[in-house]
Amino acid sequence: MAAMTPDNRRSPPPWLAAACKVACVYMLAAGLWIAFSDQILERLVSDPAELSRWQTIKGWLFVVMTGGLLFAYLHRTLRRQHEAFDELTMLFDSVPAIIYVADMRSHKLLYVNGYAVKRFGGQWQQRTCFDYLQQGQQQPCGFCSNPLLLRDGQPGPAVTWEFRNTRDGRWYQCLDKAVRWPDGRMVRMEIALDITERKELERTKEELLSAVSHEMRTPLTAIAGFSELLLEETGLPETVRRHVETIFREAEKMQDLVQTFLEVRRLKTDQARIDYEALPVRQLLEQAVGGSRECTDKHALRIDCPEELTVFGNRRELIQVFRQLLANSCRFSPQGGPILLQAEDLGDSCRVTLADRGIGIPREEQERIFEPFHRLDIGDRRRVRGIGLGLAMVREIVNLHGGTITVESAPGEGSRFLVSLPRPLPDSTPAADG
């Protein structure tokens, strides 16, 4: 058995100190009453029989007074507890989510809020959580989170998960936490939020992603291919050539968009990580700069990276990350300016920073820009193309590599994207440029 330390020793409950204080005050007052009342009676009454009668009266008076004080104290305390419980119940009943408490051993329900009663009925007393919440379930659910909630017999971190309820067919995002009930037993409290609409929206997005990607790829390939053939023709009038160049350029942008659709879908469905290797960071940055279409002569690109610095990952995906970040910086720096791609060794990881002096990103938007289909609201969207998938793809790739990506920015002062990626093992050798 592990020794008790100041960190894991359970602190006494807050009501214990209050109870001790009340008991001490009572004993002090009772002792003073007994001591001084006897002395006063002995001075006032000299007849032993009369003294005995008055002592009996004094004893009953003491019982009545202490009983009245005890009644007042308990009435006040219990009323406060009842009012607090009513307030807590009213608060839980007003939350648009299923909230219940179940014993972790027997799975018997101890509390169910009003929202759950409306969904699953009011007959929950003496029933198990799986019998009340699931359809035809006669034993604990196979996905029960109880084993994940305890650490060495004590409440551990909360667990968040999603599932589709078999009784009402709706999707819920659940947050489970082990807590200790007032009687000392361990219980599970679950808060389940209905996310069916969000799931339907995600499914619609996936279907749109698939349909747009596959249905548009063939005609776009034809448009880009034939326009490129036309550009190779000699003797084209200059006006016609400019029109064909516009068609070819826009078709390439649409092909990039469709490719982003396909890449996001692939990252969501295929997360196998079997093609990683040690890669020179400078080569990745150079290839990203060389393939950038958004940057113009107004953008001064500079790479600051040690030659020997390497990361562990997928070459094609990491080039996509840096190319997308570079395109994003150039796109949101319409007036041009310097753009720095800097990499530094942090020991177990490598940090790549891409800094520009563009229009910047408001603080409230800095986390949302990584959400799929979210576009930065800059007033005139015609200046910035895209539908908000590039940075979502970047975060997905970085997460799959075990890294992190953050942004530091302020409106009018530019942006800094910081990408942290794991370094290869010491015995790994950098892969040849392919």
What does this structure look like?
- The chain is an alpha+beta fold.
- It folds into four domains: 24-93; 101-194, 2-Layer Sandwich (Beta-Lactamase), CATH 3.30.450; 199-269; 277-377 and 385-422, Heat Shock Protein 90, CATH 3.30.565.10.
- 46% of the residues lie in helices and 19% in strands.
- The strands form four sheets. The chain has a five-stranded antiparallel sheet with strand order 2-1-7-6-5.
- Strand 6 and strand 7 (186-194) form a beta hairpin.
- Helix 1 (14-44) runs antiparallel to helix 2 (48-94), helix 6 (196-231) runs antiparallel to helix 7 (238-269) and helix 7 (238-269) packs parallel to helix 10.
- The radius of gyration is 36 Å and the shape is elongated.
**What is the CATH T-level topology of the largest domain?**
Heat Shock Protein 90
Low-confidence stretches: 1-9, 379-383
CATH homologous group name of the largest domain: Histidine kinase-like ATPase, C-terminal domain
**Count of discrete alpha- or pi-helical segments spanning 4 or more residues:** 10
What would the principal axes of the Cα set say about the shape? elongated
Main sheet characteristics? 5 strands, antiparallel
